[in-house]
Amino acid sequence: MHAVWEPWSHPFMQRALLELLFVGLVGAVLGCWIVLYELAYSAESLAHALFPGLVAAALLGLPLLLGAAGGVLGAAAAVALTTRLPGIGRDAAVAIVVTTLFGLGVLLALTPASPPGLDGLLFGDLLGVTRGDLAASGALAAVCLAALAALHRPLLATGFDRGSARSLGARPLLVDLGLLALVAGAIVVGVQGLGNLLVLAALIGPAATARLAARRVPAMMLAATAVAVACALGGLYLSYYADVAAGAAVAGSTVAVYLPLATWARVRRAARRPSRKRGRSRLSPAS
Amino acid sequence: MPLSVEDLAASYGGPVVLSGVTFDAEQGERIGVLGPNGGGKSTLFRVLLGELRPLRGSVRRPPRLGFVPQTERSRLDYPVSALDVALMGTLSRVPWWRPIGRVERRAALAALDRVGLTVLAGEQFGELSGGQRQRVLVARALVQDAPVLLLDEPFSGVDQTSAELLERLLVDLAGEGRALLVATHDLEQARRFDRVLCLNRRQIAFGPPEETLTRPVLEATYGGEIVTLPGEAAVLPPHHH
Q: ipTM, 2 decimals?
């Protein structure tokens, strides 16, 4: 029993867990929309593209959220300009801009002239989270969750049938922009603890795992939250007892949960295929 | 008059894809919209829904229009129940940020009941049959409670039971004073509508079925070589169904 409670006797572990709960909660709910909208790769690109904005904000002593907003706008402008270059398709333009911006951010963060601690934006420093970081993450997480609750119905309708969403009263472009802003916000919530490279694990992993079994969106969100909390606890225990990097341990645990469940879901689907056909014919008559 | 269109033309930024469309829909009227694939039915619906700005002409429409798309446009892998889909119809009536309340839930259940799907309200949308899915989309439009309903080929790929139920429902909805625009390839069904609008990149005809569903009009609408009229019945080749 001592081994179970012992890690939580340290304030740095308590703060790390709280930070992960903030990231996990936002990541689980927002991640469901990222997975359902098939935006995982776009979210990763966005995370990398806004990195120089985060570093610039840290260097200038500005709020990270401001840096993230500037980074997103800068990346969007760069993509728009690059696509105008002759011979470069949209896909290649995004790849060029994302890698260039990410490289620029890494260069700024890791240059010897930069103040110490900026590398934390890249790799995260879960065990070094301060009370101030927690307060900022908690406040931003609350704002993100409130926005997600408000956007739930337009998100659901637009994701189901984008073509009919306008006739229902949703505005797909605004929904997409809202989702983009929330992804940027969630990255800022998680960047302090998990870093720009690993924060995507918290955004995608639990939701992708929940998608394997959930049949309704609210159930998917609940399952993703449970997975996120379990991975936070598992990752921190692993970090504490195996003495490995906490952020990497948490990110690795989401993969460790996803892979066997994905395999199990695939096997179960294959086994059920004939009986599903029977089930479908049950629903087919007049009813 | 709930809907009125005058000399409408539309394009997607290139050549004109639809022109010279003038018609109106009275309360309680069922209008069949006929035309070949690419003839402008979907373009007309997009203009009426406000998704596409007309190139010229005018459209007078109520602030809220109900739309029933073809079921193929919906994502079958999406984790929503039939009730969830019906509840999406509340977006045009209840502000988007407000959570769903009991009133909306009751309205969605009543709409599902009207299309004969109360028992399947909790079933996943993607696991229903094609006809049942189409009925769920009709229920969603009913929840919108709009005076004008646009239905994009609601009978295509639908089982007999659903087709009969839908046809009865259209009569009932018109009886309630709603105007219905129904895109269809079924000429026999179009004969039962109040008026028919024939399109082939332009308006070919608009009027009562007995005046519009004639050989010259159908030949102009679908192309002379593809329409055969064995006796009274008009038959279209398979790719138009």
A: 0.87
